[in-house]
């Protein structure tokens, strides 16, 4: 039903509806029984939020944050696969988008989705834009699976020369050594 759902979203102009109505719509989505399928939730995450988030030039409104948080509370896996992945892959600074992802990681995502975000970051070439996201993940102090932890350590070691003058990288390595000192040799 993806083409039909995309058509319905287009017909209802959900990608451009006022943000206060977006909050109400997300409230209705959370009340649906049975829950949306993964595919439907992914389509809605894209239709409702992707354009809004990618076009942010300033801090998101409280309405947009409320809508993101409510949607994310129930459909965090498809949300991360669609929206967070797109933000992470987006070239350029993306300061507001990065801040938004960090806030979602710190306050909204379940532990399994926090690990998913970290794995998404580690699939990309590390950049200044991605360092705060990794810092936010570490700030959650979640237990990382050994393979993900090893990949993080390996990535940080390999990228060290590229970030020789980066304050964000230094903060990240310090946090890593502090939080996971028993695992880092």
From TrEMBL:
CC per GO annotation: Fanconi anaemia nuclear complex
Coiled-coil spans in chain: none
Superkingdom, natural source: Eukaryota
One Pfam family here: FA_FANCE
Regions crossing the membrane: none
Entry's Gene Ontology BP terms: interstrand cross-link repair
Domain Fanconi Anaemia group E protein C-terminal, first and last residues per copy: 4-184
InterPro entries membership: FANCE, Fanconi_anaemia_gr_E_prot_C
Protein name: FANCE protein
Organism field: Smutsornis africanus
């Amino acid at each position: 039903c993806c083409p039909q759902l995309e058509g319905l979203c287009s017909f209802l102009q959900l990608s451009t509806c006022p943000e206060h109505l977006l909050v109400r719509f997300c409230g209705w989505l959370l009340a649906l029984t049975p829950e949306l399928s993964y595919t439907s939730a992914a389509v809605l995450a894209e239709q409702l939020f992707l354009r809004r988030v990618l076009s942010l030039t300033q801090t998101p409104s409280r309405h947009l944050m409320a809508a993101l948080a409510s949607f994310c509370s129930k459909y965090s896996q498809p949300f991360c696969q669609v929206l967070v992945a797109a933000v992470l892959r987006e070239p350029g600074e993306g300061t507001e988008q990065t801040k938004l992802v960090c806030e979602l990681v710190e306050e909204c995502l379940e532990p399994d989705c926090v690990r998913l975000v970290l794995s998404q970051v580690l699939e990309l070439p590390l950049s200044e834009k991605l360092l705060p996201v990794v810092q936010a993940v570490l700030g959650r102090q979640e237990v990382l699976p050994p393979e993900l932890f090893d990949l993080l350590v390996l990535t940080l070691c390999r990228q060290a020369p590229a970030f020789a003058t980066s304050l964000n990288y230094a903060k990240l390595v310090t946090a890593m050594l502090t939080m996971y000192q028993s695992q880092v040799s």
